[in-house]
Amino acid sequence: MTGGNPFAHVDPELMPILEELRLREPIFHTTAFGLTAEEFLRSTAPGYWEVGASGRRYSRELILAWAGKTPEHFVDATEAGWRSEDFGLLQLGPETYLVTYTLDQNGRRTRRSTIWRRGEDGWQILYHQDTIVSGEEIELPPEE
């Protein structure tokens, strides 16, 4: 996590924070985050919104409305065999952090980023985005 991958960098003093937040990712799909609409409501800030892999924007209210109609969306990642890797963490401000990682959903790979804030009632998400991985990483050009 702190090795040679620049996208998975974590300052050593932030490792305890990363370990807390790793348990909550991927959002919607872990018991620590919550697998119900009620838990989603508790874990998201009132102004929460996200950009899905399709590029569509989703408000907290829209997600909650659909969650009530499609509870199968709240799949447990471990039970489904999904893998999260290459975690990175950046502190953005007081008690506010950006978590980045790659999620493999049995062959469907996405890069994910979530902005978390810790408040009096625990962790809440401010924003989330995921992007489908459509190719390999681009390497630096060779030095001349």
Quick overview:
The protein has 4 helices and 6 strands, in the order ααββααββββ. With 144 residues, it is α+β, with helices and mostly antiparallel strands. It has a single domain, classed as Nuclear Transport Factor 2, Chain: A (Roll).
List the topology elements.
Layout lengths: L14 H8 L14 H7 E8 L5 E3 H10 L7 H4 L2 E11 L2 E10 L2 E12 L2 E11 L12
Parallel strand pairs: 1-6
Antiparallel strand pairs: 1-2, 3-4, 4-5, 5-6
Could you walk me through the main structural features you see in this protein, from its secondary elements to its overall organization?
With 144 residues, this protein is α+β, with helices and mostly antiparallel strands. It contains four helices and six strands, in the order H-H-E-E-H-H-E-E-E-E. The protein has a six-stranded mixed beta sheet. The mean pLDDT is 87.
Across the major sheet, the strand order is 2-1-6-5-4-3
SSE-based structural type: alpha+beta
Provide mean pLDDT, rounded: 87
Low-confidence stretches: none
The CATH architecture can be given as Roll
List its salient traits:
6 strands, 144 residues, alpha+beta, Nuclear Transport Factor 2, Chain: A, single chain, 4 helices
